[in-house]
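Risk register update: the risk of archive-format incompatibility is retired. Evidence:
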Amino acid sequence: MTNIGNLLLSSHTLYVAVISSIFFIKLLEHKDELEEFAFNNALRNSIVIDALALLGYSFYMLAIGNKDVSIHIIFLGIEVLATLTLMFNFLELKGFSLSLKITNEKLGSVLLILSTTISFLSSISLIFKLNYLNNNFGIIRYDELILYVNVIMLGIIIPSFPNIRKKLTREEYKNHQREINKKFNIFIIVYLLYMIGLVGYVIYRVTK
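Archived output:
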C-alpha cells in the first residue's frame, strides 16, 4: 500500500513538473500585443477559479474539523492554475473570451447590498455566539464561514460593476462618477471601521 502511495505521489510530482514547465514557457516567452492581452485575460480568469476552488476546499476542511493539508492538493492547485491558463489562452486566441461582468448596474447594487447585509448579520451571530449557526464538528462556526465567503464575494462583485463611460456624455460621466466615488468612499470607510472593530473583538475574545 505504501509503494502504491509513493508511485502515485511520484506520478503526480512528474505531471505537475511538466505542466508547470509548459506554463512557465508560455508565461515568459515573448508575445505580441494580442498574445499578451489574451494571456493576461486567461491568467486572470484561471487565478480567480483556482483561488476560489482552494478557498472553498480550505473552508470545507475547516468546517468539518480537518486541519491536515495534503501535498496532492497543493500540486492540484498548481496544476489547475497552469492547465486553465493554457486552455483559456488557447480559447482567447481563437476568439472565445471568458469575462465576469455585471451588465446591469442595479443588479450589481442589489448584490452588493445583499452581500454586505449577509456579512453584517453573520457578524452579529458570531459576536453573540448564536446557537443556530454553531458548528459542533468543525473548527470554525457556520457564521464565520458565511462571513468569510461574503467578504470574498464582495471582492469579486465590486470590480464586476459595469463600465458606464460609453453610456454617458463626458460631463454626465464625470458627475455620475463623482457621485459613485462619494458613495463608495463612505461605504469603504464604514466597512473598514466595521471590519477593524470585528477583528479587535475577535482578538479580545482570543486573548481574554
